[in-house]
TrEMBL record:
<dbReference type="InterPro" id="IPR003439">
    <property type="entry name" value="ABC_transporter-like_ATP-bd"/>
</dbReference>
<keyword id="KW-0472">Membrane</keyword>
<comment type="subunit">
    <text>The complex is composed of two ATP-binding proteins (PotA), two transmembrane proteins (PotB and PotC) and a solute-binding protein (PotD).</text>
</comment>
<keyword id="KW-0813">Transport</keyword>
<dbReference type="InterPro" id="IPR050093">
    <property type="entry name" value="ABC_SmlMolc_Importer"/>
</dbReference>
<dbReference type="Pfam" id="PF00005">
    <property type="entry name" value="ABC_tran"/>
</dbReference>
<keyword id="KW-1278">Translocase</keyword>
<dbReference type="InterPro" id="IPR005893">
    <property type="entry name" value="PotA-like"/>
</dbReference>
<dbReference type="Pfam" id="PF08402">
    <property type="entry name" value="TOBE_2"/>
</dbReference>
<dbReference type="GO" id="GO:0005524">
    <property type="term" value="F:ATP binding"/>
</dbReference>
<comment type="function">
    <text>Part of the ABC transporter complex PotABCD involved in spermidine/putrescine import. Responsible for energy coupling to the transport system.</text>
</comment>
<dbReference type="InterPro" id="IPR013611">
    <property type="entry name" value="Transp-assoc_OB_typ2"/>
</dbReference>
<feature type="domain" description="ABC transporter">
    <location>
        <begin position="11"/>
        <end position="239"/>
    </location>
</feature>
<dbReference type="InterPro" id="IPR003593">
    <property type="entry name" value="AAA+_ATPase"/>
</dbReference>
<dbReference type="InterPro" id="IPR017871">
    <property type="entry name" value="ABC_transporter-like_CS"/>
</dbReference>
<comment type="similarity">
    <text>Belongs to the ABC transporter superfamily. Spermidine/putrescine importer (TC 3.A.1.11.1) family.</text>
</comment>
<keyword id="KW-0547">Nucleotide-binding</keyword>
Length: 373
C-alpha cells in the first residue's frame, strides 16, 4: 500500500478513564501503543476494552485523561476528524452496492473522483480482486469482513481499530481470518488495535497484548511473555490453564526454594512476582504442558534437579494430539497435565500413583494474597 500516513507516531493514552454515573467502566489508564504494532486489548465481557477503543476512536468522551496520536492531542476531536478508522463485528456493508463500490465509498464521500487504482490496490490487498462485482450477500462472512477492512484502510488511517471483528465467524474461518489480518497488518504497516475476548486470537495476532480486568490493565506484554510470566492469578488463568499451588518460601537467592504440594520446589527468583522473604506465602505456578508424568514405579529414573510432586491420577481425557490428566496431590492440589501422545504409558490410568516433574525454569510464583480466579 502506498501511503505516507504511517508517520503518525504512537497512540498514547494518559490517565484516561470512563465513568457512567457511579460505575467506573475504565479506571485511569496509561497506555502507549507503538506505531506500526499489532496491539490487542484482551479481556472478558464487561472489562472495559470496547470503551477504551471507543475513546481512541472518539466515539466515547473520556471522563478524565487525554488521547494523543504522535504529538497531536486528539482528545477533543470528533471521530471523523481523527486519523483512525474502525472495523466492527457487524460489517455494515451497503447491501445494494457491489464490493468495488463498498470499498470506494470513503473516497467518494470525500469527493475523490478517480478511485480505480486505489480500490484495485485494496481489493488485491484483501485478495478479493475477482469478487469486485459481487454484492455483499454473495460473499462468505470472512470475505465480507475483508471488504470491511479494505473499506476502512482505503482512507489511509494512521490507526485501524478492530472491535471483535471476527466474533460473528465460525471457528475455522476465524482462525483463517486471524492469519489474514496479521498478513494485512504486516503489509500495510499501520497500527492495528484489536479488541477481543479470545485469548488464542490475541496471542496469535498481536505483538503486544494488554490483558484487561475490571476496567484496568492487569498486565501488558508480548504474548509469550504473558503466558510464561503471568504476574496475577487472573492473567495466569485467563491465558490458558495454570496449576497454582500454595507454597511457603524456605530459601531465597538466585533460586527460590519453597515447600509446596508435599515437597520442595525450586524456581528462578526472577520468575517471582511477589516478595520471597523466608516464611512468605506464594502461589507457585506451572503450565500443564510443561509437566511430565512418570508412573511412581519409575520415580528413580527422573533426572536430578527436576521439580517433583507426587499424586494420583483422578481423570484422563484423550484429545488427539495430547492426553489431559487430572492429578490429585496428597497436599490437596488438583493439577492438570497435558502429555503429547508420542509414547503413551498404558499404566497412566485413573487411580495410578504418579510423579509429576518439570524443569524448575518453567515455574513461576505469584502473590498468595490474591484470590484464585
Ligand atoms: P464486551 O466484550 O461485552 O463488549 P467490554 O470489555 O468491551 O465487553 P465495555 O463495552 O467496554 O466492555 O463495557 C464496560 C462496562 O461499562 C460494562 O459493564 C458495561 O455495561 C458498561 N457500559 C458500557 N457502556 C455503557 C453506557 N453507555 N452506560 C452505562 N454503562 C455502560
Amino acid at each position: 500500500m502506498t501511503t505516507d500516513t504511517h508517520a503518525g507516531g504512537d497512540v498514547r493514552l494518559t490517565g484516561i478513564s470512563k465513568t457512567y454515573g457511579s460505575f467506573t467502566a475504565v479506571h485511569p489508564l496509561d497506555l502507549t501503543v507503538p506505531q506500526g504494532s499489532f496491539f490487542a486489548l484482551l479481556g472478558a465481557s464487561g472489562c472495559g476494552k470496547t470503551t477504551t477503543l471507543r475513546m481512541i476512536a472518539g466515539l466515547e468522551d473520556p471522563t478524565t485523561g487525554t488521547v494523543h496520536l504522535g504529538d497531536r492531542d486528539v482528545t477533543d476531536l470528533p471521530p471523523h476528524k481523527r486519523p483512525v478508522n474502525t472495523v466492527f463485528q457487524s460489517y455494515a456493508l451497503f447491501p445494494h452496492l457491489d464490493i468495488r463500490e463498498n470499498v470506494a465509498f470513503g473516497l467518494r464521500r470525500r469527493g475523490i473522483k478517480s478511485v480505480k487504482n486505489q480500490v484495485d490496490e485494496m481489493l488485491e490487498l484483501v485478495q478479493l480482486g475477482d469478487k469486485a462485482r459481487y454484492k455483499p450477500h454473495q460473499l462468505s462472512g470472512g470475505q465480507q469482513q475483508r471488504v470491511a477492512v479494505a473499506r476502512a484502510l482505503i482512507n489511509h488511517p494512521q490507526v485501524l481499530l478492530l472491535d471483535e471483528p471476527l466474533g460473528a465467524l465460525d471457528l475455522k474461518l476465524r482462525r483463517q481470518m486471524q492469519l489474514e489480518l496479521k498478513r494485512i497488518q504486516t503489509e500495510v504497516g499501520i497500527t492495528f488495535i484489536h479488541v477481543t475476548h479470545d485469548q488464542e486470537e490475541a496471542m496469535t495476532m498481536a505483538d503486544t497484548v494488554a490483558v484487561m480486568n475490571g476496567g484496568r490493565v492487569e498486565q501488558l506484554g508480548a504474548p509469550g511473555d504473558l503466558y510464561d510470566n503471568p504476574r496475577t492469578t487472573f492473567v495466569a488463568n485467563f491465558l490458558g490453564t495454570s496449576n497454582l499451588i500454595e507454597a511457603e518460601v524456605v530459601e531465597s537467592g538466585t533460586d527460590v526454594v519453597v515447600t509446596a504440594g508435599g515437597g520442595k520446589l525450586r524456581l528462578p527468583a526472577d520468575r517471582c512476582s511477589a516478595p520471597t522473604t523466608s516464611g512468605g506465602r506464594l502461589l507457585v505456578g506451572v503450565r500443564p504442558e510443561k509437566i511430565s508424568l512418570a508412573h511412581a514405579d519409575d520415580a528413580s529414573t527422573i533426572a536430578e534437579g527436576r521439580n517433583k510432586v507426587t499424586g494420583r491420577i483422578a481423570d484422563t481425557s484423550f484429545i488427539g494430539v495430547s492426553t489431559q490428566y487430572v492429578v490429585n496431590s496428597p497436599a490437596g492440589a488438583e493439577l492438570q497435565v497435558y502429555e503429547q501422545n508420542i509414547e503413551r504409558d498404558p499404566r497412566l490410568v485413573p487411580g495410578a500413583e504418579v510423579v509429576l516433574h518439570w524443569n524448575p525454569a518453567h515455574t513461576f510464583a505469584l502473590d498468595a494474597a490474591q484470590a484464585i480466579d
